Amino acid sequence: MKEHLIKRLYERLHKSMPDNVVADKPLAKLTTLRVGGKASIFATVDTLAELRLIIQGVKDYELPFLILGRGSNILISDEGLTGVVFQLGVDFSHMVVEGDEIRAGAAVTLASLVQTALRNKLGGLSFAVGIPGTVGAAVTINAGAQGSAMSDLVKNVTYYSTDCRLQKVGIDQLGYGYRTSRIPKDAVVVEARLGLSLSSTEIIKSQMETNWRRRKASQPVDMPNAGSMFKNPDNDSAGRLIEAAGCKGLKVGGAQVSEKHANFFINTDHASAADFYLLMRSVAASVEETSGVVLEPEIKIIGDWSYASR
User: What is the pLDDT averaged over residues 16-42?
Assistant: First the structure.
């Protein structure tokens, strides 16, 4: 039944945006872990009109959808996704500097945002150096590092809801917490306004270099990884708990707990998504057994995993 719905939706979308829609798109190369199956339908969404077509389409056919930024912070099943996966494109890639604020489209990478802030002598984003991903994802999950987070900077966020309306939400309504916000899970962030602080090129560069050195020294930046796999529990760190449980260096297939930072898992040798999924389960079980702490995944785990348990 779902295959019939997928076919009908593909035909509908392909008719309206033929250059931007493909069927059975492999996703592994679009994720930083380099794993994952195919998307039944994959689209590049360049305009709000195209976004409306996608959202209305998945609603009409009751199919799931996934917004894919730069593919970090996510683990997609080897079985892929029976639904629509899309990335935001042209109309969501703008950056506008207005005094000490930047309006950034959701498709803008954090790396580009950091460089734009530097060129305009705007401080406050140095913590984001080396964080993979896009503005849309970062403001949704409240990405952060070095004791700072996106919630320190966000003024407002504009998102597209599943009832096909644009909504602008101020910081007081975003309900930011540790790696969380009140942005609806099925909303599509299209833009964020960030408030920064006037600084000097020298000071910003120095902060950026310091943060990059720290990241490079403590994280496996030269190996395929998704970022932190688990959220830090209150008053502790997932990395410390995983190491204390004796899991540093643990391997399942081609997936391994990094020797550099135990809360980073790396793809050492053609790993499958199942390798990472089973490694996460094994590590979480060991931590619970040794410390009594139940670790909560920080990455999004997408798709059907019944095959991985067989």
Answer: 98
Give yes or no: residues 254 and 295 share one domain.
yes
Q: Which domain holds residue 294?
A: 220-309
Q: pLDDT band for position 1 (50/70/90)?
A: low
Q: 11 versus 1: which is more confidently predicted?
A: 11
Q: Which of 137, 128, 28, 112 is nearest to 77 (CA)?
A: 28
Domain edge (last residue) among 39, 59, 91: 91
Closest C-alpha to 45, from 67, 70, 64: 67
Q: Which long-range contacts (CB under 8 A, 24 or more apart) does 285-291 make?
A: 286/242, 286/245, 286/246, 286/247, 287/238, 287/241, 287/242, 287/244, 287/245, 287/247, 289/245, 290/241, 290/244, 290/245, 290/246, 291/241, 291/244, 291/245
Total-model pTM = 0.94
Q: Which residues are catalytic?
A: 179, 228, 298
Instruction: Tell me how many domains the chain contains.
Output: 3
The maximal CA–CA distance of the chain, rounded, in angstroms, is 60
**pLDDT tens readout for residues 118-141:** 999 999 999 999 999 999 999 999
